[in-house]
Structures are given as structure tokens and as C-alpha cells.
Amino acid sequence: MTAKPENEGHMNATAIRTERVRKTYRQASEEVHAVRDVSITVEAGEFTALAGPSGSGKTTLLNLVGGLTRPTEGRVWVAGTEISRVGQRKLAKFRLQRIGFVFQAYNLLPVLTAFENAEFPMLLQGVAADERRDRVTELFERTGLAGLEDRRPGKLSGGQQQRVAVVRAVAGSPAFVLADEPTANLDSAASDSLLDLMGELNRDLGVTFVFATHDAKVMDRSRRLVRMVDGAIASDETRP
Prior knowledge:
Helix 3 (114-125) packs across helix 4 (129-142), helix 4 crosses helix 5 (158-171) and helix 5 (158-171) packs parallel to helix 6 (188-205). The chain has helices at residues 58-65, 88-98, 114-125, 129-142, 158-171, 188-205, 216-221, and strands at residues 14-27, 30-43, 47-51, 73-78, 81-82, 99-102, 176-180, 209-213, 224-229, 232-238. It is an alpha/beta fold. A 6-stranded mixed β-sheet has the order 6-7-8-3-9-10, with helices on both faces.
């Protein structure tokens, strides 16, 4: 399968490591401590959920390890590279090459077809057209999207749009995929189907998934559950 991540077969490789990470925002005259001294390691091949209510720090932590925001203090490594101390241009290139994202609102480009949306990050990576076509075609067949290649997002259901977003995230062979509340806009059946798909990609292709969620279904499906409260890790449980 051409879409296998580069670290497939090295399931003990470290995908993410943080060391005493803090993120502090200032709102008017007050400081908001969104993440407080979080040290965590995620190995390649994990299916992990960062869980907690709104304001617990889970999405901020996801953004920190995804290089979307910088820590106020502490250090972040992704696939062995310390991303907390690199310049913005290098960081943007690194994100493109090594990190996949799935967002609550899908974030598909409305003027592109499903197929074009799925291949777009690979186009930016410089992957050859034939290879892009082969990867996306194979993933569309695996994910139940075959036949929908030419539809634009407005002609797809929410569940279909999120499947396209998952293919887009996975196709470029990232070190891991970060999924921020991926089921929040889906009904129960579509949520179950999406989680089945992600579980299959994790088991069969070794894709590493890290979720930020308050959805009980995502928590139940995750093999590792990290609960956050007030910006800190309250518990960290790994299940069979």
C-alpha cells in the first residue's frame, strides 16, 4: 500500500514527545494557563484520545504538537525533530510533510472535487501526479468513497466530507494524524462509521491517530485515554 506511513513497521518509534510544555494566553489583564507543564510521549501506531471538557487544554495541546501554535515554555518533538525551536518557514514545511490534520469542520476547499481535495497536500509536497492518483484511488476504494471522486464538498454528506478529510490527512504518509473533535458535526451512524474507518487505518496501515475529544464514542474506541483537567494531565490509561 503506497499510503503507508514511513514509520510503519517501527511501532516503537516515538511520534510525539513533549517536555514540560506550557501555553499561556493573556486576556485583558488576566493570564490564562491553557496547558500546564505537560510531558507526554506518543509512540508510532497509537490510537490515543486527549479527553476533557471545554477549557481542559486538549485542543491547545493538540495544536502545540501539531506545530499550529508555539509553547510559552517547554519543548516539543515530532518524529525526532524539535519543532518548538524552528523558524516559521521550516515549521510550515515540516507540518506539510510530517503531520496530517482532521478538523471538526472538515476544512475542504469548496471549489475542488473530493479527489482534488484529497490529493492537495501531496501536490504541495511535490508528489508526482501518477503517484497521487494511485494513492488517492486506493484510499477512496478502502474508505467507501469510490464513485464520489468528482463531487464537490457541497454535494457530499457530512460523513463523506469527513472521510475525504481523513484520506487527505493519511495520503501524504505523515508521522501521525491529529483529529480535533472529528465526530462533532456527525450523527451517530456517521460517527460510528468514521471511527470504524480510522480504526481500520490504524490496524491495517499503522496510521497513528491522536484525537482531541469530549465524545464518549471516541474515548471508548481509543486504546489510550489521556484525561485533561485545567490544562494538566489528570490520568493516562492504556487499554488492550
